[in-house]
Amino acid sequence: MDALAGLLDGPRARGAFLLRMVMEPPWSVRIEDRAPLCLMSMTEGEAWIVPADGTEPVLLRPGDLAIARGPEPYTVADRPGTRPQTRIGPGGICTTLRGEPLAQSMHLGVRTWGNAPDGEASMLVGTYLLDGEISRRLLDALPALILLPGDGRSSPLLTLLDSEIARDEPGQSVVLDRLLDLLLIDALRTWFSRPGAAAPAWYRAMGDPVVGQALRLLQDEPAHPWTVAALADRTGVSRAGLARRFTELVGEPPMAYLTGWRLAVAADLLRETDATVEAVARKVGYSQAFAFSTAFKRVRGVGPQDYRNGRGLPDRQQDLPVA
User: Fold this and answer.
1) Does residue 128 sit in helix, strand or coil?
2) Considering the chain, what is the average pLDDT of its residues?
């Protein structure tokens, strides 16, 4: 498992919120869904993305791809100064700013929504409704808004998503979920590989022949009884050399990284499976449930069972609907 695969290896897109938005100016939509991640791309016309924190608006043209990281709100509009008329809340619920429902009046067909069937602006929107603990390392490394210019060209994945989004076939939601995953991975790979990219240390470390191999071993086999000596033996370097190089590139020692990774995997298993706490403990390398529970509570602030029941989760997860 590499760094980008780790983003989606836990709760990948499942029943993600996907639609084509078709709008005729003047229009402005306030996004307050608290979703962890949203991908947007114009197929026709232009749109402005206006962050709520006062940073400069971003212009989105055909072929461009924008990634907005939640839970902070933002506005998408025909012009930066257009006042919002519509609000998108948690779960993709559409209302006026006064809370009046708009889902029926703005419904334009299968996964198509807007204020005019032939509006001059058309945008593809794909939203992840839930974030996973494994992905947090990556999500927290992203800026609030990313723009990947398309230089007037749409990627093959965007073209395919555009052709599939309004189809109503058996299993279509699964097809769209996987397309969204591929589009996100491709976009983040492009973002992190650009010149001067501020990629997180552990992502950059994946390219190191020694530390990258060590990271993959830890991520692929979290239940293995790893020691620095065993890891050094598998990577073909000295124990001291591995410990020094790993810490310099990743920002923490190998065993500290392993503990964090194990508990992140455990958090996903607790939320996404019915496995007992004991089974989860064994799956991530703890021989005793008590030792696992102690470590989990020290890091998460609550025990595994309380975490599974939703107590102690960050606000952005508690407020989001389950897909």
Assistant:
1) strand
2) 86
